Amino acid sequence: MTVAALALENITCTFAARDNRAQRYTAVKDTTLRIEPGEFVSVVGPTGCGKSTLLNIGAGLLQPSAGTVSVFGEPLNALNRRAGYMFQADALMPWRSAIDNVMAGLSFHGVPPAEARAQADEWLKRVGLGGFGDRYPHQLSGGMRKRVAMAQTLILDPDIILMDEPFSALDIQTRQLMENELLELWAAKRKAVLFITHDLDEAIAMSDRVVVLSAGPGTHPIGEFRIDLPRPRDVAEIRAHPRFVELHAQIWSVLRDEVLKGYRQQLTAV
Ligand SMILES: Nc1ncnc2c1ncn2[C@@H]1O[C@H](COP(=O)(O)OP(=O)(O)OP(=O)(O)O)[C@@H](O)[C@H]1O
Ligand SMILES: [Mg+2]
């Protein structure tokens, strides 16, 4: 067996319950998730099931209550320095221009300013924003801000890329453009990707493997599907592929009941 880029093993994560601090809520239970080097894995599951929790554990931002995390075979017990992280919400610094946002990580790692700026400029061009470097986040569209965030994450050339519903706030056309862009960048470098989404179409179109999580409490994987669609893929066109339709039907039959369960739980929790 090869050494996984990221291995979450028998992870359980409990939180103090909202209404009664003495009680514990088990968000994730006994979950194992391995991502091989170069593999693109999506995790889908109903809202509130524990997707972000798993990602935060993989990033080293959250300590599991039980289980182990290892990164290329090494146990993780602090921040995961081999991972780059792209949040669901906008995480740009509003007081910095686009180029300053993109070069921030390099500067933090001690790269001299001229060198950092040159690399950031290169990355802005790569995500289609050459010439927008001096704009501030509020002067950019939502899609442009996501591109800046993508450049900001990828410029550090992380071996593992963790993405938490990075494109969910975008309109469908922009989203498909960004998905294709990400796939192109990924194909060039073949880093391990853990991609969280609640959109099954997106998960299938992008991934090598899709993992389905159950509704909480005690979320755990209930299905795993290898996506044997040809690459390179165009995320819009691949949806018409007969194998895509087949995989979608298979995975949806597992996911559907969990989505309904998750939705009902949120209604009763309000
Ligand atoms: N710090 C925390 N304290 C208490 N409960 C938490 C904490 N973080 C998450 N939870 C709970 O754990 C469960 C899983 O949350 P998580 O954010 O991982 O869900 P998710 O699958 O990412 O949902 P969404 O699709 O809506 O983003 C939820 O019930 C949430 O309320
Ligand atoms: Mg989430």
Automatic annotation (TrEMBL):
Q: Name one Pfam family in it.
A: ABC_tran
Q: What is this protein called?
A: NitT/TauT family transport system ATP-binding protein
What does the UniProt keyword field contain? ATP-binding, Cell inner membrane, Cell membrane, Membrane, Nucleotide-binding, Transport
Boundaries of every ABC transporter domain copy: 6-240
For molecular function, the Gene Ontology terms on record are:
ATP binding; ATP hydrolysis activity
Organism whose genome encodes this protein: Paraburkholderia susongensis
SUPFAM superfamilies from the entry?
A: P-loop containing nucleoside triphosphate hydrolases
Concerning its family, UniProt says: Belongs to the ABC transporter superfamily.
Organism placement in taxonomy: Bacteria, Pseudomonadati, Pseudomonadota, Betaproteobacteria, Burkholderiales
Q: Which domain of life is it from?
A: Bacteria
> Which spans of this chain does the record mark as coiled coil?
none
KW ATP-binding (keyword) present: yes
